Each structure stands twice: as C-alpha cells, then as structure tokens.
Amino acid sequence: MGSQAADGAGSERPAEDGTPEELGEESRRLTREQLFTMAATASINFSSMICYSILGPFFPSEAEKKGASNTVVGLIFGCFALVNFLTSLILGKYLTHIGAKFMFVAGMFVSGCVTILFGMLDRVPSGPMFIGFCFLVRAMDAVGFAAAMTASFSILAKAFPNNIATVLGSLEIFTGLGLVLGPPLGGFLYQSFGYEIPFITLGCVVLLLVPVNMCVLPKYDSIPSKESFWKLILLPKVLLLCLTIFSLSACLGFLDPTMSLFILQKFTLPAGYVGLVFLGLALSYSLSSPLLGLLSDKLPYLRKWLLISGGLMTALCFFMLGPAPVLHIKSQLWIFVLVLVLIGFSIGMSAIPVFPEMLNCAYENGFEEGLSLLGLVSGLFNAIWSLGSFAGPTLGGFLNEKLGFEWASAIQGGWALLTGLATGIFYITEARRRSSSSILQSSPSNNEERTHLMGSET
Questions:
Q1: How many alpha carbons lie under 13 Å from residue 165 in its C-beta half-sphere?
Q2: Single pTM value for the model
Q3: From CA 439, how far away is CA 434, in angstroms rounded?
Q4: Rounded Cα distance, 119 and 455, in Å
Q5: How far is Cα 163 from Cα 166, in angstroms, rounded to an integer?
Q6: What's the pLDDT tens digit per position in 240-295?
C-alpha cells in the first residue's frame, strides 16, 4: 500500500461547484512523497522530450543514406504517435492492474534501452532491413513513452488532487527544456562523435534515472474499476475536450515537417539559426504554463475562458504565421517569431486546463474517484494527443506540398477556430441549462412560502 500522505491526497475530491477547498497551512506544504513525485515526473518529462527531439537535426539525412525516402522517414516519425495512441488507451485501462509505479519505471527502462538501440541502427544493412528495424525500434520507444507518461499523469493527479493544473503547468518547464536542448545537444554530439554517441549517451542517462525513481517514487495502489473509455468519451464535455486536445497537438505537429523548410526558403537563414527560431514557441509555452496552471487551480471558473480564448488565439496566430494570402500581409521574420511566441502562450492557455476539466466532468457524472479513473483520463489524454501528433504532420505535409505553407498553416488554424467556437457554444448552452434548472428548483420553494404567508394572513 502507498504511504498515508499519498493515500490522503488521493482521497480528497474537488468541490461540487468546481472551486478549490480551503486548505490549512499544514496541507499547503509539500510532503516528502509529493516532492519525490514531482522530481520523478520532472525527470521523465525532461528525459523523454530530449530523447524525442534529438532525432530532428541528423536522423533524416542518415536514413536517406540508408535508402529511406522522405515519405518513409515521415512514416518512421509518424508511427511513434500512432503506436502511442493505441498503447495509451490500453495502458490507461489496465493501470491499476499493472501498477502505476511499475508502469512508470518500466516505461523509463524501455525508453532508455530503445534509445541506445536507435544508436545502433547505422550498423544495420541498408534497404528494407534498416527501414524495418527503424519502425520496430520507434514503435517500442512509443510503448515505453506511453507507459511512463500515462502513469505520470495519474500519479500526479493522485498526489495533487487540489492543484493538479498548477503542478502540470510547472512541470511543463522541464518538457520545454527537453525540447529546446534536444536538437542542439544532439547536433553537437553528432558532429563531434558521430551517429551512435547522442543516442547512447542519452539512453544511459535515462537508464541511470530508473533505479533512482524506483527508490524515491511512492507506491500508489487502487482497486480496479469497471468504468470504460466509452462511457467517459461519450460524455459531451469530454468529447469536446478531446477535440481541443486533438486540435492543439495537430497544430504543433504540423510545424515539425513544414516550418524549418519555410524558414530556410522564405528568409534565407543559415541552417544553424533555424533552431533559434523554434526557441520562441518552446520558451513561451514553458514559461507561461506555471502561471496558467496556477490561474486554473485558484480560479476554476476561468478554465472555460482559457479554453475558448486559447483556441481562438491559436487560430488567429496560425492565420498570421504565413500569413494567409487573403490577409495581403508581407511575411517578415520578426512577425514570424512574434507569432510563434504567441502560439506557445495560446496553446498553453488551452492545454493546461483540459486535464482538470476532464476529471471534474467525470466526477460530476458519477465516475468513482481513484487511481483507476485517473488512469482512464490520463490514457485518453495521451491517446488523443498522439492521434493529433500523427494527423498534424501527415495532413500538414500534404497541404504544404500542394498549397504552400501560407495556405497550409491557415487551414491548420481552422482546427483551432472550430474548437474555440464549439467550446464557446457548449459553455453558453451549459450555463443557460443550469440557470433554467436552478429557476425550476427554486420555484416550488417560492410557492410554499407564498402559501404559508397566505395561510398566516387568514
């Protein structure tokens, strides 16, 4: 069984009206188990993102030398998201059977081993054998990533039930650091020592973190629940939030295969400066996420406004990224960088409140609280995010090839526009429904008071 502090944290539940409960001074201090949980989660956020992002600078060129076409290289990248989508659903469902801590540590172990294996692929003969091993190793990496991240979200929500958005937002700093440091570190190690060293070095670092997390991460046990993904995802609000997750990850994924080519062609920048342009998005997202998470927890009624305004702002930014030809605005580098900074902030506005909103919706609809529900929600979140990460680059690459970056980015922004409008309509409808139901509930009591007054007058 888990520690008393961990179990106590998991037994608390958000208030019915969505406002955080009053906490005493003692409960505001982080326990040792909570600190260890945050440290373990920060390590997986940073290590998984840095391992994921080191491929970009040099793997495509190495794969082409081995006989892989641009299309095949894109599929190798895309299969990660597709396998992650399928695995997250399965692992989320069976989280309590496997055990959250075991799934977390096993996922890290698999990711470390597979990262090292990826560094050995240059020794595989060129042609179909190399391509087949690339798909196999990439799929195994996706399984490890899905296991670690699904368990990570569930453990965090169990340890921090009253301020999950704040914690998630704070830990996104480490996600951003991994994404920012991965490409330059990978490129430096590749240029200095060759293909194998970047993967072996980072894989060994991940493996060294495995025994550390085995010791420090608390164990969280729970009774398996009979709830299913279908019951959760068929809730209208959860379905809408899934659309939000999909649109955000698709918009981010769209930038992977298209943005660097556009920068090189449009602004004629040296290849070394392309990574610096990427920093605008990653840094703005990482630095704004803690503040957005704090707002989401302290003022839960702001979540719906963050979701709506974040979706609409993301749509506007993607219209301006090209910019869209219908705007008749000349593309300039400073506008492009400014828009990327705003995209990082707007995506944080929508992404950070989604997880606590999904949890609250599940509680309001009678789902049994506990680690089993957290596994369902985190598995669903990671699965839909991965689906968007697969659809974004695939559709974005096609549109970029056929229509050009300006139109492709505008069309991609249509996803965010649709999501923002749909979210606004849903919350307006929900507010009117709750208002009408409260009026109906209060009318009988008014009639009773009127009858009582009339009786006293007679």
A1: 30
A2: 0.76
A3: 9
A4: 87
A5: 5
A6: 999 999 999 888 888 877 777 788 778 877 655 666 777 788 888 888 888 888 88
